[in-house]
Amino acid sequence: MIHSLFLINNAGDLFLEKHWKSVISRSVCDYFFEAREKAVEPDNVPPVIRTPHHYLINIYREKIFFVSVIQTEVPPLFVIEFLHRVAETFQDYFGECSESTIKDNVVIVYELLEEMLDNGFPLATESNILKELIRPPTILRSMVNTITGSSNVGETLPTGQLSTIPWRRAGVKYTNNEAYFDVVEEIDAILDKSGTTVFAEIQGVIDACVKLSGMPDLTLSFMNPRLLDDVSFHPCVRYKRWESERVISFVPPDGNFQLMSYHISAQNLVAIPVYVKQNISFFETGSSGRLDITVGPKQTMGKTVEGLVVTVHMPKVVLSANLNATQGTYNYDPVTKILVWDIGKLNPQKLPNLKGSLSLQSGAPKPEENPSLNIDLKIQQLAISGLKVNRLDMYGEKYKPFKGVKYVTKAGKFQFIRSAIFLSDKSYRIATLCTISLIF
Amino acid sequence: MRAPPALSASAPRNGSRDSVSGALRRSASSSSTAAAAAEMSASSAFIDEKGGSASEPEYGHDPASGGIFSTDYKRHDDLKEMLDSNKDSLKLEAMKRIVAMIARGKNASDLFPAVVKNVACKNIEVKKLVYVYLVRYAEEQQDLALLSISTFQRGLKDPNQLIRASALRVLSSIRVTIIVPIMMLAIKEAASDMSPYVRKTAAHAIPKLHSLDPEQKDQLIEVIEKLLADKTTLVAGSVVMAFEEVCPDRIDLIHKNYRKLCNLLIDVEEWGQVVIINMLTRYARTQFLNPNINESLLEESSEKAFYASDDEEDEDKKAEAATLAKRKPYVMDPDHRLLLRNTKPLLQSRNAAVVMAVAQLYFHLAPKAEVGIIAKALVRLMRSHSEVQYVVLQNVATMTIKRRGMFEPYLKSFYIRSTDPTQIKILKLEVLTNLANETNISTILREFQTYIKSMDKDFVAASIQAIGRCATNIGEVRDTCLNGLVQLLSNRDELVVAESVVVIKKLLQMQPEQHSDIIKHMAKLIDNIQVPMARASILWLIGEYCEHVPKIAPDVLRNMAKTFTNEEDIVKLQIINLAAKLYLTNSKQTKLLTQYVLNLAKYDQNYDIRDRARFIRQLIVPTDKSGALSKYAKKLFLALKPAPVLQSTFKDRDHFQLGSLSHLLNAKAAGYQELPDWPESVPDPSVRNVEIPDWSKCTSRKDRKEKKTEKPFYSDSEGESGPTESADSESDSGSGSESASASDESGSGSESEESREETESEDEEEDEEKEKKRKKRLDKTKAKKPAEESAESEQSSGTEDRKRGRKAVKNQKSASESESESESSESEDESEEESEEESESDTDIRKKKTPISKQPPKQSKKESKKERQEMSLLDLDDFEPAPASAPVTPVNFLSSSLVSDLEGLSLTNNILAPTTIAPSGSIKMYELLHRITVHQQHQLRDQKPAHRGAQAAVWDEDPRVHRDRRVSSR
């Protein structure tokens, strides 16, 4: 399966190599470098590169390329998924997965890689098993180790490895038993200029932080489980109970994990919290343009929209912007051609507006494309889909845990505007669509 | 300098950070003490070097940058000193530095002797790092590596399972040919270890040994066979992986574990799930009938022929085909259903690879109506990392060609976002194009139009191509698309124009008459467009349809002749082409021009162009030398050319197993296992049963009415037979169904008897009783039926006897977990052949009898319905022992099957009361045989008292042994 792994940074330096079978010369990465150069953007490097004797399957994450070498047939997703799991494990161990942390902890990284794969086939990828085998570095532990001479490598087989629930180790003890669940929702929507929804869907995840002693068996139920259209679960969740009773029954892993992710695609359920009135035009002569953007609340369910940020990707010919914002601050970066307008809290009484003129490169033709427009925002205490956790029950343990459910609202991702020529009627017509993606 | 190395494993004194590099340099120039060097941790050494090498090269540390080998030598010297010291902490420091070197790809092989000494170190971390080192360099230093072997051998006997496992891991990872026998022994031993973790490690070691020495394959297959029977989820994934690498073609090893694998699947770790699902996909393709067979039959008219061949295998089908002369309703094999049912929940897995594996399984195996469920899960994967999206979209693209309807509801999920990487955009475009049909084309076209405005030029070009494809595929929008594309010709962006020209050219070929104005328009464009491909396309269009534009064409040629020398090669070729065509249609105006062009081409640098010019001159300019061909020049050049078919590049890619690397590359990758075609007819179920100790592979469309009466017989063994319990419980239905089919047969029972005989082959006791029964029945049939029948049954009983003899041998072998796997499979093969022969001969006879059996088949259909209901009610987790599920009535299985035989003879469906049968002499003989094998087992056990537990585990896993024991204890 996976033969070797090379870690390569954005500058093209190969800074770590690990082989699980016989050694493969790092010159095999030349094919990767070739593809990397051709792709210009790191995102565009093909995930699977074919070389005369090997196949290179790579992922790009945290500015590092994880390049694995394959010799025989293997499902590509298998490798890709595994590489992501490696990156996540590093993140879990060192707080972040970056070149410097990997270099700082090169021995632990090596020990981890050794445990995660055997002969190229995944052996232990569950973080709780790995943490028993190789303890994550902490200041305290390294101090203790230097004094006592003990190591941070486990001497016995992790209990999880043998049980049918490999994600949980035995003998967990906490003085405060607590379980927290964060319901995080995100809307992807495409709106046209008039504000009608062309396409909208909600993606949600439930992140959990469970610190419970012993072997608790939890059951989480929803007020309205019918909302959930498509779900995927952490392996700890019993599929059968979900299918028959629509409750989530599981023995949780210890600590932080993503319990489930779901997807709500029914458009009528997706509320769009804000609207954007925007008018960006470029004059045929005089190499200038006009910009006028107003943002207002739409369906916010009585909550306040916070952290509102509008980002506009300007065409290349726009040199500078001279604008006036009624609320917040704006900033135009002439290098990346991105205009960022940081509004903050949305006040429904006084709608924020950004207005002014744009100056274009003289002599350049009027840009054809309409700038795309992104929006970031936050709404606290609201799951836009209306999903509500009903109750959390615990079986198998005697103590009373502290339980908490939070509907987290975070910054959203983007919205964009597009223009179109309609081929059918011979005139040019501009249709503006925008996509909003929000996290609630 | 930098943040304190708090995170590093063993932090040096933070203050000494600067002095560390100083110490380094010292150690380089003068051989410093080991103690000084010990102050630095491996990680700090790593950092210092990286940081240091930028400003001031650290010769002592980096041989590549320094190139001063003497100092390099010295540094390794102090590492050696540290390794030789008594302090574990010093050793650990040294090992960490060495591992850091390995990680960077620096050569540390000269330290091998010093490192290998520490393989027996007590400190587990030092030990682990030594293992890392060993695995890395053992191949280069084979002789020295042998020094470590005895340590591993000791480790293999350690009471700590982790140490046993890691010893085996390292031992098997050392690629030294000389230790192959030791590895083999270790693997065999570990395969029966008490700890499933060690057994898992053994499974991992199998492919390692196989790649080191392929000659061990036979022995390894035995180990695989043994591990396949393991009932723990931990082992299942790893052993299937070993199976896939060592002997993927030995599908016969899977038979008896099929149900167990299906049932364990949900509890296997994610990676194992992927491997098992992929393997089972292949397996199912060889063992079950195509669930969409009726649909494919509708299309083809080979219905009759198909059934003719099918009937030989299956009496039910035959009866229906002959009597009703209608299409047989397809009823899925329960095992096939089991697989589909047990994989379905995995669509909800968080692991994209698992979801994809299930999706491909459904795509390849499920009936059309059920495939749809995978769409949602695949669409969900589209929100994952871009690499995952890339792979999923490739597969979706292939699926959309075959099954468009499946993804239509999710059309909008494939809309392209400006933030997608180009490769994702292009794949989404492909999917959108595949999904386009009359109803959604307007939406899709509107979407495409927005894409043309994108800044990403590759993507714009692909969008235009996509519009072209929609236009060719959907007639209604062809004109709209063409108009739109023509509008694009006035686009300011040349790339857009060029791409449009190329696409318009293809579209125009479909109906050139109506579009001469477009051709004219394009002719005008030639002055402005510089992209060679577009110019070439325009020239070709003008040449091809020069009769539609008789005035413009010569003028274009005149212009092109002027610029001929400056054109790109493809354009030059098209100029020659245009000249030739014009010469043939309008030689008056263009004769001189053509000659001019041909002369220019004659002296071109490119030999293709020179060749083309010479060739065309010979063809079109009549000379006395020119042969018969020039007469046909016009026909040659101006023949009606078929319009190009704009096809998806993903067409026909589904002959590769979806989700595989080969599918992604559209080329066979090394080690790719072809996805077999569906069998034409059911692989003889009875033969399949031979290979299954739990004789559970029951065939489809048979009722389980007798299930309950038969259950008790198995339930004695259920408690003990671990992994095959569910198989046991289901098997009843199999045998029951046989009896039912026997009743359907109405008299031709001998045939079904035959198949059952095989089913239960390993159960001697049954064999004999049956034998007896057969005799009884034979008597009856003889009395009842004419000579032909008795001849048949005699024949079958004859072969049967032979077979049974062989089986006895086989059983003995398998019971004692013997080595000669290949032999037994051979004999299996033979028996397969035999049974086919038999069934053929049977059908001949049966054909004459079929009219009698009109009634029974209907009944069996009803019953099969019932059975299906039961199936859906079955618990997914039914691999748990469920002994109480059936009322325990002490009815002997054999007697009931005899009953059914008798039923068959008497043409009734009432179940007769089971008759008791006295054992005959032959039984004893077989019992004896089995006592011997059981004895062997006992001996085996006695040999290894230390591993008693493990042995017992193995014992538990082999249900055959239990039955054998039971037999002997009677």
From TrEMBL, chain A:
Organism field: Cyprinus carpio carpio
A GO cellular component annotation in the UniProt record: cytoplasmic vesicle membrane
GO BP term, pick one: vesicle-mediated transport
Tagged with keyword Repressor: no
UniProt family annotation: Belongs to the adaptor complexes medium subunit family.
Locations listed in the record: Golgi apparatus; Cytoplasmic vesicle membrane
Record keywords, A-Z: Cytoplasmic vesicle, Golgi apparatus, Membrane, Protein transport, Transport
Membrane topology: Peripheral membrane protein
Name of protein: AP-3 complex subunit mu-1
InterPro entries associated with the record: Adaptor_comp_med_subunit, AP2_Mu_C_sf, AP_mu_sigma_su, Clathrin_mu, Clathrin_mu_CS, Longin-like_dom_sf, MHD
Keyword Transport among UniProt keywords: yes
Pfam entry (one): Clat_adaptor_s
Domain MHD: 176-417
Function: Part of the AP-3 complex, an adaptor-related complex which is not clathrin-associated. The complex is associated with the Golgi region as well as more peripheral structures. It facilitates the budding of vesicles from the Golgi membrane and may be directly involved in trafficking to lysosomes.
Automatic annotation (TrEMBL), chain B:
Annotated Acidic residues bias: 751-769, 818-842
One Pfam family linked to the record: AP3B1_C
The UniProt record lists the keyword Transport: yes
Subcellular location(s) per record: Endomembrane system
Biased segments, Low complexity type: 1-12, 732-750
Composition-biased stretches (Basic and acidic residues): 700-713, 860-870
Gene Ontology process terms (BP): intracellular protein transport; vesicle-mediated transport
Gene Ontology cellular component list: AP-3 adaptor complex; endomembrane system
Record carries keyword Transport: yes
Region Disordered, annotated ranges: 1-28, 699-883, 938-970
Biased composition (Basic residues): 772-784
Principal localisation: membrane
UniProt membrane topology term: Peripheral membrane protein
Coiled-coil ranges (or none): none
Residue span, AP-3 complex subunit beta C-terminal domain: 866-962
Key words, A-Z: Membrane, Protein transport, Transport
PANTHER family in the cross-refs: ADAPTOR COMPLEX SUBUNIT BETA FAMILY MEMBER
Homology family: Belongs to the adaptor complexes large subunit family.
Name of the protein described by the UniProt record: AP-3 complex subunit beta
